[in-house]
């Protein structure tokens, strides 16, 4: 009987070790803003265009950063950024998801250039 328990325990341990939880690495925007005050975000970049209560959180839709930039290829472009912020009851950003983006002046994401600048 004890051999059976040992074998079962070993099989369980092997199965459990095969289950690893991995989370996607945070984007630079998430690293900068998740855990920060939504008030700080909106003070820096302007107010949201809409909000929707969802249980204990609120989804804020934001659009801003309107600018005309010079691209790496020498051309100019009108750019902006749009994001959806999930904010909890204490006004802390729990998630930020980019919903519209353009090529930036120095890379593929204008939103990243805008929202990670110190």
From TrEMBL:
This is Lipoprotein. Residues 1-26 form the signal peptide. It comes from the Bacteria. Keywords: Signal. The lineage of its organism: Bacteria, Pseudomonadati, Pseudomonadota, Alphaproteobacteria, Hyphomicrobiales.
């Amino acid at each position: 009987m004890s051999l059976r328990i040992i074998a079962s325990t070993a099989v369980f341990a092997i199965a459990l070790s095969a289950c690893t939880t991995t989370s996607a690495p945070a984007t630079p925007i998430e690293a900068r803003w998740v855990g920060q005050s939504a008030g700080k975000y909106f003070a820096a970049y302007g107010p949201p265009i809409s909000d929707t209560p969802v249980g204990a959180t609120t989804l804020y839709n934001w659009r801003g950063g309107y600018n005309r930039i010079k691209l790496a290829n020498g051309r100019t472009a009108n750019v902006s950024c749009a994001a959806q912020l999930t904010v909890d009851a204490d006004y802390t950003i729990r998630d930020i998801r980019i919903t519209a983006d353009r090529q930036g002046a120095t890379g593929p994401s204008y939103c990243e250039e805008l929202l990670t600048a110190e």
